[in-house]
């Protein structure tokens, strides 16, 4: 049996502003940093010790992982990074306001671009300031591999080779693997793990900052479809909030009842050695 921990990055500055982000390298908001801290607390409280971390090349995922692992006293574990775990590229929509895009193009077109499985937004031009063709972190990639726009099907296609070539070997070696990535790259992975149809994946949302844990069998299939969030109540509330993104100024989701923290002297000790 193998353990896989999925962690969507905390809220980014552009998430907070309601902008399409994609491959633009924006940082975490203050709320996102707090979410990452909570993610680390949840790992610590669940006594889950990742042996290796896989992240994208984008700072919001990298910093979320670093914050969470630091809280859990695991900042020292090996790290592997890949563009294949990057967020979906939103093409010419990158940097645009979601609510304004909905108003300009209408509900149907907006939802087709944002949530359909196989329809990408209009491509970004190479000379656009928000294009990644001249980004140094992708300097080793052939130009044709750098997306100008992607749908979720494209993300599945570019993510799966990394799953098979990099993540599965770590799982096969008996390691507990943590993947800190993005809403759509994690949706792509969950689609594969849970064998979700192209039609049903449209309705799947993954909340920010709450670890999702899969126990996998010897064939790397989930023992429990859908895995298990380390804070199910918070995950449920956050998933509802994700559904409202782009719908204009939405009412804040009701907060689930907070778990009472253990007295300071009863909290689990920070890890000083491997179990």
Q: What value does the average pLDDT take? A: 90
Overall strand count = 6
CATH superfamily: Phosphoglycerate mutase-like
Q: Which range best describes the helical content: under 10%, 10-25%, 25-40%, 40-55%, 55-70% or over 70%? A: 25-40%
**Largest sheet, spatial ordering of strands:** 3-2-4-1-5-6
Instruction: Please describe the biggest sheet, giving its number of strands, its sense, and whether it closes into a barrel.
Output: 6 strands, mixed
C-alpha-based Rg, rounded: 18 Å
Helix/strand order: EHHEHEHHHEHEEH
Question: What is the molecular shape?
Answer: globular
Number of domains: 1
**Span between termini:** 17 Å
Class derived from helix and strand content: alpha/beta
> What is the CATH fold-level name?
Rossmann fold
Strand content range: 5-15%
Q: How many helix segments?
A: 8
CATH architecture: 3-Layer(aba) Sandwich
What CATH first level would be assigned?
A: Alpha Beta
Unreliable sequence segments: 246-275
Give a brief rundown of this model.
This protein is α/β, with parallel strands linked by helices. The protein has helices at 13-17, 30-45, 59-71, 98-105, 107-115, 152-172, 183-194, 232-243, and strands at residues 2-8, 52-55, 79-81, 177-181, 212-216, 228-229. The two termini are 17 Å apart.
